[in-house]
Write a structure and sequence with these properties.
heterodimer; A: mainly beta; 6-stranded mixed sheet; 0% helix; globular; B: 112 residues; mainly beta; 7-stranded mixed sheet; 11 strands
């Protein structure tokens, strides 16, 4: 089946630093999604991307849908302590199920 | 408030004792799904439902049952739970399968 490779698995950064994480796949997708999971809660949608090459921002978060449709990245600028959590990418083809990456665990040191 | 509600949030039980985890959404979504989350394995789909009375297996359906008698509810049933079903479970819903899914807050099950 389809698999997503999400990297890095974990990151330890200082408050104020920028963060970048990415997902790659051997298959193409029509949709890329980025979710964040806080401890003890369910994943929450951050950004949805529907078109190859699309660059979308949500506050300090920016995500891009790769031109090849096989990858996506998420950037967080000027990190703050509440950015701590696990970030998941997910890809989907039309009429197919959502495929999730295994997550990037982000730790922000004040 | 638009939400997906799961109950219970936490449950410790014993092998073989049937249990049901309920899931309800108030967004009139057609698509609902159950996932389990395990360390190092990420989110894996157990079952999904495209609409009322339409359910299908996901990636890891063994040991689970579901039903979709009403649009808003999608319970997960463990007829004879075993320790390898100890996990964090999430229910999710979306208007259609191709739409981004909204997740509940999770149910942590421990099967002793």
């Amino acid at each position: 089946g389809q698999q997503l490779n999400q990297s890095p698995q974990s990151m330890f950064i200082q408050e104020g630093e920028d963060v970048s994480m990415n997902c790659t796949s051997s298959s193409i997708f029509n949709t890329w999604l980025w979710y964040k999971q806080d401890p003890g809660e369910g994943p929450v949608l951050l950004i949805a991307l529907y078109k190859a090459g699309e660059l979308t921002s949500n506050g300090r978060l920016t995500a891009q849908f790769g031109i090849t449709r096989k990858d996506s990245f998420l950037n967080i600028s000027a990190s703050i302590p509440s950015d701590v959590g696990i970030y998941f990418c997910a890809g989907q083809l039309v009429s197919e199920k959502l495929v999730f990456g295994k997550g990037t665990k982000l730790t922000v040191n004040p | 408030e638009a939400q997906v509600t799961q109950n219970p949030r936490y449950l410790i039980t014993v092998t073989g004792k049937k249990l049901t985890v309920t899931c309800s959404q108030n967004m009139n979504h057609e698509y609902m799904s159950w996932y389990r989350q395990d360390p190092g394995l990420g989110l894996r789909q157990i079952y999904y439902s495209m609409n009322v009375e339409v359910t299908d297996k996901g990636d890891v359906p063994e040991g689970y049952k579901v039903s979709r008698k009403e649009k808003r509810n999608f319970p997960l049933i463990l007829e004879s739970p075993s320790p390898n079903q100890t996990s964090l479970y999430f229910c999710a819903s979306s208007l259609y399968r191709e739409q981004p899914q909204h997740f509940g807050d999770g149910t942590r099950l421990s099967i002793l």
